[in-house]
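Data availability excerpt. The first of two example chains:
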Amino acid sequence: MEIIASPWKRWGKHRTYLNGADETRLGFYDHQTGVLAVEVDSARAELEAWVSQNTTERVAAEATHVVVDTAPPIAAVALTRASPRHVLTPDLARTPGPLGSLYGVPGALALEKAATLPAEQAEPWLMGAAGEQAIAATLTGLPAAWFSLHSIPLGDPDSPTGDLDHLVIGPGGVYVINSKHHPGQVVFVKGDMVLVARHAQPYIAAARRDAMTVAVRLSAAVGTPVTVTPVIAFVGADEVVIKFPPRDTLLTTRGQVLDDLTRRRASLDAATAAAIVDVAQRPSTWR
């Protein structure tokens, strides 16, 4: 098989795209991470041979799954540092009112933090808030049997995040979704290891801890065990390259989160889901 290599450098990234003679994209090699992303499995051997013959880097891993976010870029969001209460937020039809001050507003904690910081330090927090708003807006597309709550303060000083970005309850179960906004970046996942722009991020451990906290709080409030699945939803990433997924955490993107949630096997009957929704709306559950 003839391999046509097309080097590409932009925005601090360095890749070589590998195409067939008919210009079909077979995969790409990332020179920074050492990842060979195979998109046409029948060409794997030829791509591996090309990498071994044409690069000096060691291939760190072979991607078993490459996720490209199909959602369009998020529109500019009016995030006002001095007055975060006036941030433009989506119409959340099935979201209850605020639990207090800004709570219930997607990105509330990030906005409050950004309002206290100089502009250059506030930018990452504003970026995070925009990602939370994008996922919250997407979740309004869930079917009527599903319910979503946003920016829930945990009241736990040891929590890695301080609040829950999104809590989703429906026939397919209970999910805690952590939004991660990385526009233009490549995310590499190998089990519990997550790399963003070659920097390790503790996303899996934090997601698991939040899910465990929610399971304990909801179980106590309902009076029966509640299983909670941690979810990490990437926003704006060029690609999410998954060598193999973490064993108990769902990885998704803004463009796929609705399908990933609604195609799960039904595990909650309507009465149980309603009971969980009821206690989830009580501030006392989270204190």
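And the second chain:
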Amino acid sequence: MKYLFFDIECANCYNNCAKIFSLGYCITDENFNVLHDKEDVLINPRDRFDWYVAKKMMAYPREIFADQPPFPDFYERFREMFEDSETVVIGYAVTNDVHFLQDDCKRYGLTPFTYRFFDVQQIYARQPENNTAKNLEDSLLSWCGIEPENLHRSDEDAYNTMLILKAIAAYHGKNLPELLEMYPECGGRTEGFTMEYGWKKPEGEAVKKKRRRSKKGKGEEKRPQEPDTANMMEAGSENAALFVKYLETVKPKKTRKPPLLTGHTVTVSLGYQRHHFNEMLYLVQMIVNEGGRYTLSTRAADILFTYDCGEEGDQRLAMAEAMIAEGKEIEIHPIKVLFDTLETSEVRLSRKPKMDLSHLKEPVDEGDDGAAEEPVTADSEEAVPVS
């Protein structure tokens, strides 16, 4: 058997469709001997590069991609690689890359590849130690003691994925197929535009901490937790009033060069904003530090970062999609992209100490009926209901 380690980088994922600009890979045997050295296949995405990709994730000058062949020119080569019956495909957070390949096949009217795959991120998360990293770079450092030099270069990421799995295999005294046999739930298969995989996300540290704080018995652990009302922003609430005042007064404390959000006005899904008051305060400060501005109006934003809003739905996403249908420009990305840009995470923000807002509370008029706070939970000019 051969083992194909691969990674993909995309120019953008506008309209929920990835446009690939590089596919890096290396191939090994069952003992991690390299059969095909790491190679980065550069592809003309035939679309513009997203601002985040251009500023944070480019290992090459953008100009060179105009002279590269488009994805269809590599289709047969990739098909032979991925569909080889003697090859197992392996990646890090591999379902993303599987989707990317499906997207470009769909974009060009090509038949998607059929292959089985394993996810090193899932295998990593199941290790008895060194299992808390959130990305490939930290995983590589914890298992191999190596700091990657060429971040977001597909061939390097593919090779580093192999090194992580090699280190885990050595830890268990297994070769590659023996290690994969230990974690069948970390494998999957894709055919057509469908994908099936066996893993369930291991219970996260944040969930465990919530359970310890709640002091519930075993019989009560499955009950839904009450929302943290002290960390919510509802229309007319004191938190809403404070947030509006904070937006009016916040100024950059430190600015990186170049600031990554210069000229951008951003907003996030109401499902995150409403339930994460303290996190939003820190998030706004980070956005301002990066040269950006936070807005409470979707129509005033040029970037929306989306969050899973559950059954209540994402009202700002619905508005952004309506804007796009009207021919207006607004970029839509998962909120993780914002966290990555700001070099933070949902967990890190949740652990931030309560921000001192005493300087904002003094001028608050106690008789204010909250009219000014209405946009905090809904963009009033958009007539989007909250409840």
